[in-house]
Amino acid sequence: MENRHIVSAFDRDLEAIQAYIMKMGGLVEASITDAATALAARDEELAEAVRTRDSAIDELEERINEEAARVIALRAPTAIDLRVILSVMKMSSNLERIGDLSKNMAKRTGVLVQLKTVNGTTSSLKRMAREVERMLKDALDAYIQRDVALAEDVLERDADIDQMYNAMFRNFLTHMMEDPRNITACMHLHFIAKNIERMGDHVTAIAEQVIFLESGETPSDRQKKDLTSTEAALPKGALD
């Protein structure tokens, strides 16, 4: 009876921690979407809401870490139970970083509102952010359902984010070459694109935790498709 009581208490602890993770994930999903919408609509009020929300995301990460440390100290979990707690802690760290990147994206909206619009760029960034948000939703669903196939699908889709980033990088360079007045805006837009690309990396790290949770092993290193440090990323004539 006592052992069943301990197990039941441990299960409740895990459920509480996982509920915090899902709440944190929901806030981060909203931040990605709102940051992209604020940029496209040049909505400074919505951008400010994203920046404000980041403190709630940070507080949830701290709460998760505190609860996880408490459970480890009191319950001394082993095997799969320990993997669950370690995975949750890593996931919360990645969610917190995505929240920070969303906040950074929102911060630049205030600057870009004061600059000339660069045609077609914000809509491309919004599409990229929307895909990352979908990946995050699927990664969190994979965690709840313990769905390794869905987690692996998320990993594969990160290559699409890299390709979108590469295309935008070339587009920004083209705009800057055509009109030097675009340089400041394009530099800010490039930093935003890089932030979104990094969000995708953190989402894949969450998906990797799902695979680790089920198998005890993390996937082998993936080949990134970010080519922006190579000549292949440059538009035709950039080096002429």
Instruction: Report the helical percentage.
Output: over 70%
Rg, Å, rounded: 20 Å
Oligomer: single chain
Query: What integer is the average pLDDT?
Result: 88
Order of helices and strands: HHHHHH
Strand content: under 5%
Structure overview:
The protein starts with a helix and ends in a 25-residue tail after the last helix. With 240 residues, it is mainly alpha-helical. The protein is built from 6 helices and no strands. Helix 4 runs parallel beside helix 6 (183-215). It has helices at residues 2-41, 44-75, 79-112, 121-145, 148-178, 183-215. It is elongated and about 65 Å long. Helices cover 81% and strands 0% of the residues.
What would a concise description of this structure say?
The chain is an all-alpha fold. It contains six helices and no strands. α4 runs parallel beside α6 (183-215).
Characteristic key phrases:
mainly alpha
Helix/strand layout:
Blueprint lengths: L1 H40 L2 H32 L3 H34 L8 H25 L2 H31 L4 H33 L25
